Amino acid sequence: MKSRRAFLAGIAAAISSPAAGASNIAQTVLGPVDPSLLGITLPHEHVAEGAYYLRKWPKDWGGRPEFVARSVEKLRVVRAAGISTIVDLTPYDVFRDIRFLEEISRKSGLHMIAATGQRFFPPNIAGVTMPSRTIEGLAAFFTREVRNGIDGTTIKAGVIKIGIGAGKPSALEETGLRAGARASKATGAPIRIHTRAADRAGESLAPILESEGIDPARVSFDHSDDSGDIDYFLGLVKRGYSLGMDHVHRGLRPEFKPPFERRTDCIRQLCEAGFAGKIFLSQDSEFGGSLLPQDAKEWRDTIDPPDGLLFTTRQLIPYLGHIGVSERDIHTMTVENPRRFFTLA
């Protein structure tokens, strides 16, 4: 079994230099970049819903300046470990703070990609209302945040995030899903979908997306490893969809099924079947919560992965290597897939 350092060194060595004459870009909070510069990417995280966490961050502890400083300190460790890009899938209705993301990206040296979209099952937020309840209105809103900027800034979204809470979408969620598909076709931005994989949600969502003419290659069904059903996975990847395997760490806890070993074995089986190009590895971490005192943490914060944003590189990747996943496939999942997916087509 290779050491973690040797495994990551092999992945880093394979990262391509910018392609000559490349015209496509990936949109980060600091502006467009050549997609080949994204490197090892965590494609489904929540760096910090800044305004929300700051409410739980007493002013006498330093307020926002201290929160920024501690965030940057931790993110520099993440960058030093070999991760180059984090995708923050926090849309406007769950406390996205685009200026916060811009600041900590600039100070930490990490690329960050921000999301437009809608979660559809948000907590109660005073003063936050949906911009529209029609397909056309939501599509226009998502498109504007990709093309023009977010919250009155020129900082543009680089991905569309849609949240679906159950096995089948509600009428409102279907409106958002169709709006996301139309905005994706208009802008070239990819779509990542919060899914309830245990109820095989992707199977109910795929026909809706396909009726909108979306290219399945531009869609990832995230939290997919919450299903341990390899037939479910194969059905989706054969249709062209990608799978976000970003709850793997939860399988380490006895109250979450399937267990870690089943989740990782499904990744191995998909790679052996030739579908490494359809898998993303991430953690769905609520990073900002790790900066809070223990008595301020909520349920979501307490189930964040061991090692935080470094769980994938410190634990998951070495384990996948141990059970037979090749270095080539790991490079595909962590570097090549994000580079292709987050290129604005």
The number of distinct structural domains comes to 1
Q: Kindly report the name of the CATH homologous superfamily.
A: Metal-dependent hydrolases
The CATH topology is given as: TIM Barrel
Helix-strand category: alpha/beta
Average pLDDT across residues? 91
Oligomerization: single chain
Number of helices, where a helix is a run of at least 4 consecutive DSSP H or I residues? 12
pLDDT under 50 segments (min length 5)?
16-22
Shape: globular
Second CATH tier, the architecture: Alpha-Beta Barrel
Q: Give the biggest sheet.
A: 8 strands, parallel
- Binned, the helix content reads 40-55%
Cα-to-Cα separation, first versus last residue? 38 Å
> Beta fraction of the residues?
5-15%
Order of helices and strands: HEEEHHEHEHEHEHEHEHEHHH
CATH class type: Alpha Beta
| Total beta strand runs | 10
